[in-house]
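Hey, can you fold this one?
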Amino acid sequence: MPVGVAGCAAATRPTDQHLLTWPVPGEHSCRKERKSLGSKMTSREPKTSLQNAYPSAKKLLLKVEEEGEMEDYCTPGAFELERLFWKGSPQYTHVNEVWPQLYIGDEATALDRYGLQKAGFTHVLNAAHGRWNVDTGPDYYRDMAIEYHGVEADDLPSFDLSVFFYPAAAFIDAALRYDQNKILVHCAMGRSRSATLVLAYLMIHRSMTLVDAIQQVAKNRCVLPNRGFLKQLRELDKQLVQQRRQAQHGEDGEKAGDKEM
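Sure. Predicted structure:
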C-alpha cells in the first residue's frame, strides 16, 4: 500500500553528469538477454516500420483528420507490444531519463543516497516497497529533500498492479509540475514494475496511447513488463481511448449545435 511522505524541500539541481558515474553492469545489454530468451532478433535484422510491426492489428495506427481528431486506434496484443520493447534501446544501465525530469532506475540507484542527492532528485517512487523487496521508505530518506511514495508490488503476472496506476501517476504528475523537481521511479531491476507505472503515467496524464508510451520509454531504456502487467496496461489503454473518443464526440456535438443556432 502507498506509504507516507518524507520532507519535500526543494533541492538544488546539479548537472546530470554524475548519473554517468554510477556503476554500469559490465557489457550487459538487452540484446544479449533477448538472445538468451530465444529471441530471433539479430543485430542485422532490418528496421521495421510501425505498420509492419503489428501484422495482426488491422487498425493499429491513429488516423488523424485535419482538425486533429484521433479517428481510429486499436490496442495491439501482448506479443505485438513486446516487439516494440525489443526494438527499443538495447543498453541496460542503472538509471535512465525516459521523459523530461522522469527517470527509471534499479535498486542500486535507489540505495545510493549520495548519488540521488548529487543528481538532485526530489521524489522517489518505489514500485517494490516492502521488507522483502527494496526496503527503503520515508525513513531511509528522512534527512534528504526527497518526497517518497511506496507501492508494495510483486513482479508476478498474477499481481494486480492496475490498482496503483492512478495513485502512482498522480504522484509522478505532482512531482513534475515544477521544473526544479526530478523523480526516480524504481523497482529491483528497473524493468517491469517501475516501467509499468511510468507507462501508465504517460497514458493517463500525457494523453499517450500505450504504443506511444512504450516507444517513448523503450527508446531511452531497456524495459519489459511481464505479461500480466502488459494485459493490465492494455485494459487501461482501451478505457482511456474510449473515454477520449466519447469526449471528442461530445465536443463535435456541441460544435454542430452551435452551427445550427
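The chain has nine helices and five strands. Let me know if you want another pass with a different chain boundary.
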